[in-house]
Amino acid sequence: MGRERTAGSGLEAELAKHRGLEIHGGYIRIVFMWRRIRCRESLGLPVTKANIKHAALLRAAITHEIKTGRFDYGRHFPDSKNATNYSNVKDERLATLVARYKPLKAVDLTPMTEEKYSYALDICTELLGPDRLAGILLPEDIQRLRIQLIADRAPSTANHYLATFAGFLGWCENNSYCRKGLSAACTRFAMTDREPDPLTKTEFEQLLSKGCLHAQDSAAITLAVYTGLRPGELCALAVEDVDLTTGQINITRAITADGTFKVPKTGKSRSVLLMPPAVEACKTLMSLVANCTPRQIEVFTNRHESRIETITPLLSPTTQARKKIINHWFVPTSWNTKWAAIQKRSGIRPRRPYQTRHTYACWLLTARGNLAFIAKQMGHIDFTMLVQVYAKWMEDESAAELDKIWTELNSKKTRP
């Protein structure tokens, strides 16, 4: 609404001196921006020079309070409906809120996960502006953040940042630090599912014959391929986990990149039955560490609980070490480095170490292994994951499986 013509030219001139003042219904009204909203509030004062100066001073005080984050709508305009509509969030800067949120979130995280969360929150806060008031953020700001994140990051990384920041924004919404709907604006980017890229039998043999320079390396890769262990589980194995009498290995822990021991990904232990090559690999690894001294480690079951174990590393850097001071355990990152070197020497196409797990699953599926058995071996709750991830390998065997079923149906044993 525009300014109404004042009674005299003197009042018009006085009014023109001050920004953000207008006349509405014969009374002075001030106009200001707050949280990206244009606010208009009538003071109920008639248009006089004294009242115009008073309104100008009031508006100046309000704009100063807005800039310093101390503005209280209800204090200045207690009878305004906007006092309720606009005062439902508190003025806090993003950096302050993130610092407050981190320890509250960390109580449910492992130290390694806490570090990743903290880094993601810091990146998003820096891109948005650490001094920005959370209360003035709009979904548009989050959409702009998405653009900045995906500009030079992989979709998986950007999605991790968005998921982490969405959790923070949800906390802000619940505590009235920002408007509702911001967390929902952290839409994840669509990703193309990466199909498993298993080793062929020929490539596996090349890894062992050309890539491995030490008996430990060939035994470790054989064990990984014939058990489907995750890299963190493989590196955390101990001699005490192997039961050669029953032909199985117990998976009770994993190791993180920073050397912290934790329970497996699913939170539950499992036993993996060993095929003959895996049994021989275990025997080789056990012989190589036969003279090693058992070591005491702490395995975290969650952030607040842990157990103490005294075990002997089954796969240890000390076996091949030339240095006197070296870690007693491989961690996933150091195993990645070794795996890359072995692949390069073997001449096969490079893959991530996790592909040994996919190789195990694909080999068993193409051999028409029982889905429930394979899922249990790999530590899945059921075989849903197998169907989703390895459908291609199941489809490749569908014709052969049908022939097998038809043969069984027509055999003498299955006739009614």
From TrEMBL:
The keyword Transcription regulation does not apply. The keyword GTP-binding does not apply. It holds the Pfam family Phage_integrase. Keywords: DNA integration, DNA recombination. One of its GO terms (biological process) is DNA integration. GO terms for molecular function: DNA binding. Signal peptide: none annotated. Residues 194-403 form the Tyr recombinase domain. InterPro entries: DNA_brk_join_enz, Integrase-like_cat_sf, Integrase_catalytic, Min27-like_integrase_DNA_bind, Tyrosine_recombinase_XerCD. Gene3D superfamilies: Intergrase catalytic core. It comes from the Bacteria. This is Integrase.
